[in-house]
Amino acid sequence: ETEPLRGAINADQGETTISRHIYGHFAEHLGEDIYGGFWIQDDQNNWQYNQQVIDALNQLNIPNVRWPGGCFADYYHWKDGIGPRDERPDQVNTIWGAVTEDNSFGTHEFMGLVDRLDAEPIIVGNVGSGTVEEMNDWWKYLNHEGPGPMADLRAENGREEPWGVEYFGVGNESWGCGGQMRPQYYADLYRRFAEYLRPQVGTDPYRIAAGPNGDDYEWMRTLMEEAGYMIDGIDLHHYTIVGTWENKGSATDFAEDGWFEAMQGSHYMDELLTRHSTIMDQYDPEKETSLIVGEWGMWHDPMPGTNPGFLKQQNTLRDALVAALHLNIFNQHADRVRMANLAQTVNVLQALVLYDDGQLVKTPTYHIFDMYKAHQDATLLPMAFDQGVYEHNGEETPAVSASASQDEEGRIHVTLANTDPNQSRTVTTELRGQDVSSVTGRVLTAEQMNAHNTFEQPERLTPSSFDGAQLDGNTLTIELPAKSVVSLELR
Ligand code: AHR
How many angstroms separate the Cα of 325 from the Cα of each of 13, 270, 372, 391? Predict the structure, then answer.
């Protein structure tokens, strides 16, 4: 038995909105994310949207999708992906698996997808191997009302009205696969490319700069200093890896060491956000520029027997805990972090769903997004509490992670995760500033750390109703099972 962890939620002190865009997603031309995921062939080899995937995602109120990459974005020439499908050129996807890219999924198909998902598009332009003219043409193709060459071309291809795309990334990982640039050089290029993403009738650009690789604070400082005045969002990327880049370990076959490292690695996101925000505060105390976490999630060794360039992996209770910790951390940083995109939605990395030949399975991570969706656009409630300690082999990481918000109807939502796989934790928190009379909840947990869903057993790990929370006046006591995630609603 451990001591109860004490805390307080201040329901009358909420100031910051948790942007729904924190609950965003990412779909790249990589492996079976687009082709074989969102976009599938029927019996006659005609391409079509995958309605099963769309239906599953629609339950999560997905706010946005980032596309076409990732690294692929700086290889992609968007004009290959418009016009009649049978006239579009084949390319080789040299960055991911060296497979044929038939360009059947292009701008119109992506805009049709986000329309079906009722989500905002985030388009990443090509800086690494593209030109200012090419990016500027894409921007006008998306947004210029016409008449003009790009608006006319769009109309010829079946779309009269401009789409009004606001979120536009100026390159991806420009320090790496997006051009191996140094920060000063990228800052100058950013200024040049971004200059031509100008407001169109009805559309103001939200210009996103390729941000730092994890703890590259120099990249952040240079960008803020040299180009900050033109940047709406800076896109930080950081993945949670157990082991080394060369040997990340199996998604499903791991012991407590691999569990502990993932929990510790997730808490590192808090340090990254705190330190990058501190740098941004020096240049932008009004917090006009957002910090975006445009790629995050667990990256394991590829599933045995799959193309290693496809980054396909299973997803267990461990991934669910990692997602829960990250989302709590993003919520807590909502004053600066206004967008995040889990990598990647279907069949790639920490996917929400796995799909193969007519079969779909929701991963444990999918269920976390479902349990957390009530935080979208709610007001963050300040919450202070003792996180406790999860100790393993002489090392420590916080045991409990949590965040709280209040929605427009006044309901309070609390999400908590207990990272300790061996011991339950009791959290006792005072609710200040508002009276509530009922608490209901859901829990995701399992006997085994590596519990996961398969096509054969799709419901092995799903949330169940939670009866471990009690209200006594304004004191809320929660018994968090070992290795669990709990979401509560208080009225
Ligand atoms: O998500 C996979 C890859 O990881 C992306 O293409 C790239 O941006 C990052 O390095």
Answer: 23, 9, 11, 17
Parse the chain into domains and list their residue ranges.
5-11+381-490, 20-376
pLDDT for residue 399: 97
- Residue 1, pLDDT score: 63
Average pLDDT estimate for 59-75? 98
Cα 70 to ligand 1 centre (Å)? 5
Please indicate whether residue 173, judged by its CB atom, sits closer than 6 Å to ligand 1: yes
Q: Maximum distance among all alpha carbons in the chain?
A: 72
Q: 316 near 260, Cβ under 8 Å?
A: no
What residue has token string 């976009």?
39
Q: Which helix (H) or strand (E) holds 263?
A: helix 256-283
pLDDT of 244-285, one tens digit each?
999 999 999 999 999 999 999 999 999 999 999 999 999 999
Q: Please tell me the distance from the alpha carbon of residue 167 to that of residue 76, in angstroms, as a whole number.
A: 18
Architecture of the 20-376 domain: Alpha-Beta Barrel (3.20)
Q: From 264, 376, 370, 275, select the one nearest 322 (Cα to Cα).
A: 264
- Continuous segment of H or E residues that includes residue 148: none
Which tokens sit at 268?
């590192």
Selected catalytic residue, list 101, 120, 173, 261: 173
What is the chain's mean pLDDT, rounded? Answer: 97
Q: In the annotation, is 295 catalytic?
A: yes
- 64-67 and 120-125 beta bridge pairing: parallel
User: Structure pTM?
Assistant: 0.97
Using alpha carbons, list the distances in angstroms from residue 155 to 31, 103, 114, 408, 451: 31, 19, 19, 40, 50
Question: What is the second-level CATH architecture of the domain 5-11+381-490?
Answer: Sandwich (2.60)
* CA atoms 414, 274, 260, 365: torsion sign: positive
In the numeric block, the tokens 């939620």 are attached to: 9
Q: Tens digits of per-residue pLDDT, 427-448?
A: 999 999 999 999 999 999 999 9
Cα 46 to ligand 1 centre (Å): 29
